[in-house]
Amino acid sequence: MQKGERKLNINKKLILNILLNLIIGFVTLTLILALLNLTPNNFIVLPLGEKSFETNIEFKAIIKNVFDYYETLLSGTFGTSNTNKSIFNFVESSFKNSVILLSFSLFFAIVFGILKGIFDSKREKRYSSNLKTLSTLTVLAMPDVFLILVLQFLAVILYRNGIELVPAAGHGEIRHMILPILALTLIPMSYIARITSLSIDQNFEKNYVKTALGKGASNRRIIYIHVLRNAIMDLLDSFSAIATIIISTLVLVEYMFAYPGLAYVMFKNYELGEIKVVMAMGIMIALLYFLITAIFKILKYVLNPKLRGELN
Questions:
Q1: What is the mean pLDDT of residues 194-205?
Q2: Which residues pair with residue 55 across a beta bridge?
Q3: Which InterPro entries match (predicted)?
């Protein structure tokens, strides 16, 4: 295949991938908007025996509300709340808070996850490999809710002993962010550590590493100079899954720690019946997910010389 044809095929693949993601996003958002327009009084009776299909759902009204909302979005605003407040004000502050929380958590998850992965690898022989791996797998096996509850329980114990460094919930001070950042960091960090350690162990079986070992290079030098580069490529391939983990955990963390980000504002306004605010927050959470995945896909093409060569 000619270089120009290969480049054209890659460009087509990228365009199709973008279009597919947009279609999936549009369909998902439309379904969510439709569901949010349902009320507790709505019912559906499915055909059973002599009974026919019955429902009090006004599908035409729901469809009209969905398209009206899209029209509002296309006008460049999120509309107004039931109390005539601009929804953009809700979005602006909560989006900023969520981005701050995600930025710190992603940074710590990547840095400490890679370091933990190196520590977990079988080539780091100063400590028992099974125990190192078990510590990572234990965090991965924990449900998000249980992990958050454990951290809050520890914060309560510290508070009862006169240590108020890490509040169990709330906002307004930097110390209120410590536990949410920790809760949002631990599971992605363990996921990154596991991928890194497996990648390092696999790369040590390759010929170029065996050649370097034969020339007298140390394990540590090989890991940091040669193997880690390939491990980072494997990480970038897995960041769609990591983004899913961190966004789903963000929803729980914000709600359970009463952190005023997108998810917390979304839940609170749902209780108040502010459906338009809820929809705006849901859209921004989805946007955060797509931004994170897009950034790491771009990094993958920038850092991978093979992909750069195909695109040039």
A1: 82
A2: 44
A3: MetI-like, MetI-like_sf
Total structural domains within the chain: 1
Q: Mean pLDDT over all residues of the chain?
A: 80
Phi, psi of 55 (to 5 degrees): -160, 150
Q: Which two tokens stand for residue 106?
A: 């992603």
What tokens does 211 get?
């050649």
239-272: pLDDT as tens digits: 878 888 888 899 899 998 889 999 999 988 888 8
Structure confidence at residue 195 as a pLDDT band (50, 70, 90): confident
Q: What is the DSSP string of the chain?
A: --HHHHHHHHHHHHHHHHHHHHHHHHHHHHHHHHHHT--TT--EE--BTTBPPEE---HHHHHHHHHHHHHHHHTTS--B-TTS-BHHHHHHHHHHHHHHHHHHHHHHHHHHHHHHHHHHSTT-TTS-HHHHHHHHHHHHHS-HHHHHHHHHHHHHHHHHTT--SS-SS--SSGGGGHHHHHHHHHHHHHHHHHHHHHHHHHHTTSHHHHHHHHTT--HHHHIIIIIHHHHHHHHHHTHHHHHHHHHHHHHHHHHHTT--SHHHHHHHHHHTT-HHHHHHHHHHHHHHHHHHHHHHHHHHHHH-HHHHHHH-
Q: Is the CB of residue 185 less than 8 Å from the CB of residue 112?
A: yes
pTM above 0.70, yes or no: yes
Structural domain boundaries, residue 133: 86-311
What SS3 string covers 168-210?
CCCCCCHHHHHHHHHHHHHHHHHHHHHHHHHHHHHHCCCHHHH
- 245 domain residue, yes or no: yes
